[in-house]
Specification:
With 264 residues, the chain is an alpha/beta fold. Helix content is 53%, strand content 11%. The protein contains 14 helices and five strands. It has a five-stranded parallel sheet.
């Protein structure tokens, strides 16, 4: 019998210590990014998409995506003050931070980075303060950095209307959703990697379609549903409810309800 709890862990919502599954949307974003980096000057790049489309996963895998050709400085959360942000950039160059005002610290950082292929990647950028937005505008104008700012699609429009961004060179890369066949391929790949060959066969085309219907092609919700389903199967096994130890529409529906993807 398969270890359902261990299989459930394959579908946990995390970006570290997981194999990078390159969806078509991610491949398109990668190609767009490479074209911009190869053909344009340093500027702001906005990576936008629905929550759960894989923006954080994309940023986490930037070194692999870009074949280690760029120095990546990644911020998972944007809760920092301008002075602390600049000091962090300076320290990343193993340089001593001067006891200067912000304007002088900016000049120090620009001097350190102006000749280096550095990308500053900021996740959840819709949460940036106005002071930080102004600082990023100044740094982008210096042409010392590339910035990739990941944010939710519905919140990006407001930020992009800000004069700091609308009046300056910037590019927008949009991450779309999973297509049905690649969602099914992703599920099969993870199960086969775990050696769960019977489960991969038992997860019928019809059940895969139900998973896709409930998750609506959202990568995070797909993983959430599968994670909950295999936890339910683990609980059923321990309770001797053998009828719930095989993938079924009933289990998929229960997992979707448990994950808040559909109403009970």
């Amino acid at each position: 019998m398969a270890d359902f709890k261990q299989i459930a862990q394959l579908f946990e919502d995390r970006v570290e210590n997981v194999d990078y599954y390159e969806t078509r949307a991610h491949l398109r974003a990668k190609n767009e990014l490479l074209e911009i980096l190869d053909g344009e000057t340093k500027q702001l790049i906005f990576l936008v998409g629905e929550p759960g489309s894989g923006k954080s996963l994309f940023l986490y895998n930037l070194p692999k995506i870009l074949d280690e050709k760029y120095h990546i400085i990644r911020f998972n959360t944007p809760f920092f003050e301008p002075v602390d942000f600049i000091k962090h950039l300076i320290r990343r160059k193993e340089s001593e931070v001067g006891e200067f005002a912000l304007e002088q610290l900016i000049s120090q950082a620009v001097e350190l980075y102006k000749e280096s292929p550095t990308i500053v990647a900021i996740d959840e950028a819709q949460l940036l303060s106005k002071d930080m937005i102004e600082l990023l505008r100044i740094l982008a104008d210096s042409k010392a950095f590339w910035f990739i700012m990941a944010m939710h699609r519905h919140e990006s429009a407001k930020i992009l209307r800000e004069p700091q961004f609308s009046s300056r060179p910037h590019r927008i890369i949009e991450l779309g959703l999973l297509e049905y066949d690649e969602a099914r391929e992703y599920i099969a790949k993870e199960l086969l990697k775990a050696g769960a060959y019977n489960l991969e066969e038992e997860l019928s085309k019809k059940q895969a379609k139900t998973i896709y219907k409930f998750s609506k092609g959202n990568f995070r919700d797909t993983k959430k549903l599968l994670h909950r389903m295999f936890l339910l199967m683990d609980a059923a096994l321990k309770l001797g409810k053998n009828e719930f130890t095989k993938p079924s529409r009933c289990l998929v529906t229960m997992a979707a309800i448990d994950g808040g993807l559909i109403d009970s």
